[in-house]
Amino acid sequence: MSIENGLHSLDGLTITMREQIDYWLTKFPHDQKQSASLAALMVVQKENNGYLTNVLMDAVADYLDMPAIAVYEVATFYSMYEHKPVGQHKICVCTNISCMLNGSDKIVEHLERRLGVKMGGDVTPDGKFSIKEVECLGACVNAPMFQIGDDYHEKLTPERVDQILDNLE
Prior knowledge:
This protein is of the alpha+beta class. It folds into two domains: 4-77, Arc Repressor Mutant, subunit A, CATH 1.10.10; 89-168, Glutaredoxin (3-Layer(aba) Sandwich). The chain has helices at residues 15-25, 37-47, 54-63, 68-77, 97-101, 104-115, 158-168, and strands at 4-5, 8-9, 89-94, 129-134, 146-148, 151-153. A four-stranded mixed beta sheet has the order 4-3-5-6, covered by helices on one side. Strands 1-2 form a two-stranded antiparallel sheet. Strand 5 (146-148) and strand 6 (151-153) form a beta hairpin. Helix 2 crosses helix 3 (54-63). The longest helix is centred in the middle third of the chain and has 12 residues, at 104-115. The protein is elongated. It comes from Piscirickettsia salmonis. One of its GO terms (molecular function) is 2 iron, 2 sulfur cluster binding. Pfam families: 2Fe-2S_thioredx.
């Protein structure tokens, strides 16, 4: 049990995080709290500016009454979880076969040149953008594509990328 101090607790979970995790816990049998681990990690990541820390993963494990290693296994298996800071707008570029054959390499080159960061972990100095390579996002018919937040952007060209980025800045 932790001692609450304002919106934060000593174990790293805020009241907001706990409330959102509690919502997900209602979706599973009471004795299966670990079933909410994916959702709990997404909640914590979102509330922590888009990435997870060891302290937060340990706190999720404690809150869900499960071994920390089990939470780490989930958090490192799925590519949707980040373990270091990301930009306010994380650009997830599909580079699988359909996107590659339709020019995703040119999209990546354009993004890297325009933003001044490399795909795979760098964040722009203003903290706004990062570029991540991802597996197929299921929009092959409209390749090449990327995802920013919850939005898919398809049939990309360098000009279209510039329009999208200009609308985000």
